[in-house]
Amino acid sequence: MKLEPVIGLEIHVQLKTKSKMFCGCDNAGENQPANTTICPICTGQPGTLPVINETAYRWGLKTAIALNCLIPEKTKFDRKNYFYPDLPKGYQISQYDLPIGQNGFYTIVAGDKKIKVGIVRVHLEEDSAKLYHSPAGDYSLVDFNRSGTPLLEIVTEPDFRSPAEAKAFLQELRLLMMYLKISDAEMEKGHLRCDANISLRPAGDVKLYTKTEIKNLNSFRSVERALAYEVKRQTKLWDENKVSNFQSTRGWNEQKGVTVEQRSKEGESDYRYFPEPDLPPFVITKKEITKLKAAIPELPNNRRERFKQDYDLSQKEIDFLITNEDYSDYLEGVISELEAWFVAERPKERGREFITQKKKIIHLAASWLINRLTKLIYDEKLSLKQVKITQENFAEFIKLIFQSKVNSLNAQEVLKIMFKTGGDPSDIVERKNLGQIGTSEELERIIEKVIKDNPLPVQQYRSGKTQTLQFLIGQVMKQTKGRADPNIVNGLIVSKLR
Ligand SMILES: [Zn+2]
């Protein structure tokens, strides 16, 4: 029997607000000494009252809107009760039956497959403190710096059919958080945490079977590996007819590469949810939603689609640009300069040739940005923000290459000077005499001289030893100090020798 995996994700995103979810404490406590960014509220002292962080609330709404969720007219917070040493109040303030967003979706591309991933819910809550267990296991310490950090929980429908699809979604969600500028979303630092649930079923079946939940997935790689391990383990259970109806929780052991059975999962009833009496329910107005909608930038999945449609770039180039938002923003600026110039140059021209040429120049810009400028930036350990080349000058530089006013070898030289000085490319070309010699008289004169000075190779070429042509081209390139286009030189020499 052929089996298919049914996978869903539950993701926690740490919001990078200045202060915590319900108090004014510094939210950047992860880099501070233990227990220094705390107050009576986030350490759960009796008699204190929580106050909602407005920014966290708006960012939560913004995410729910970006994930195409239905936004309720009214939302509220609830207490989720459980006893654990990292939870000072004995309950976590979370959202239960009226989350900030429900029934959404987000479309991603995994491999060649486009998947519309259902979003069950998006809700706000607070994080717990952090426990440190002594190596000998004889004592534990609590750091409350993280206690009360705003978290956004996002739960997907079980819409993934392979571990790779789940990983692709998580990576896409990370990009979304970065584009919305609400979280650094670094998995390794715990800003983005993921639990995955998985069951198998006979391919084609629509029923959902009892799922297993996997905890402690703290890298994209471990999400994929742990799920792949579970597929293997559960396939064996199906083969042996030992599939259990009992929902279980397993932890991922990165070193051993296996999942290990943990406690059985609490049901919702074990948490005894009830409305948070210190925070009254609040109303979300249509006006507020409209305002937030307008503030959402172009999302990574849409931008990827548009780049593919409009710019004719390779998958690798698109992936680089989408994961490096600053580079795609920079490129867009360059492109709009180039497009304006291109239209001005060809006011009456339209149609297929116009589009082909336009795509060609955009591709040229993307490729010089990704392959050449990036290398200079990385070599100097800089960021794109620190680069002196304006988008206008970069566009000018691309124009020079496009119009064959500078060949690609000398263009690299020009780019290096621009990178160092921030200078104007046309200026640099003129000053350093790096401009390309086209089919000018100067070039013809040099070619005639090379033919005259090298009678032997010329004779050999004429008697059929055509390899000597490369030698003659090399001589011309040398005489022009690399300013000629080798293809043009080739054509001219051949016609002269005939
Ligand atoms: Zn506090």
Description:
Strand 12 and strand 13 form a beta hairpin. This protein has 16 helices and 15 strands. It has 3 domains: 3-294, no CATH class; 300-431, no CATH class; 441-497, Orthogonal Bundle (Arc Repressor Mutant, subunit A), CATH 1.10.10. Strands 5-6-9-1-10-11-12-13 form an 8-stranded mixed beta sheet. The mean pLDDT is 91. The protein is elongated, with a radius of gyration of 31 Å. The chain is α+β, with helices and mostly antiparallel strands and 498 residues long. Helix 8 (325-345) packs across helix 10 (391-402). Zinc ion (ZN) binds at residues 20, 23, 25, 38-39, 41-42, 148. Residues 20, 23, 25, 38-39, 41-42, 148 line the site of zinc ion.
Which terms summarize this structure?
16 helices; Arc Repressor Mutant, subunit A; 498 residues; 3 domains; alpha+beta; elongated; binds zinc ion; 3-stranded antiparallel β-sheet; 15 strands; 8-stranded mixed β-sheet
Concise account of the structure shown:
The radius of gyration is 31 Å and the shape is elongated.
SSE map:
Layout: E1 3-14, H1 54-66, E2 74-75, E3 78-81, E4 91-94, E5 101-110, E6 113-126, E7 130-133, E8 140-143, E9 150-156, H2 163-179, E10 192-202, E11 212-217, H3 220-239, E12 248-253, E13 258-264, H4 268-271, E14 274-275, E15 282-283, H5 286-294, H6 300-311, H7 315-323, H8 325-345, H9 352-379, H10 391-402, H11 408-421, H12 425-431, H13 441-453, H14 455-462, H15 468-479, H16 486-497
Parallel strand pairs: 11-12
Antiparallel strand pairs: 1-9, 1-10, 2-15, 3-4, 3-14, 5-6, 6-9, 7-8, 10-11, 12-13
The protein binds zinc ion (ZN).
Zinc ion (ZN) binds next to loops.
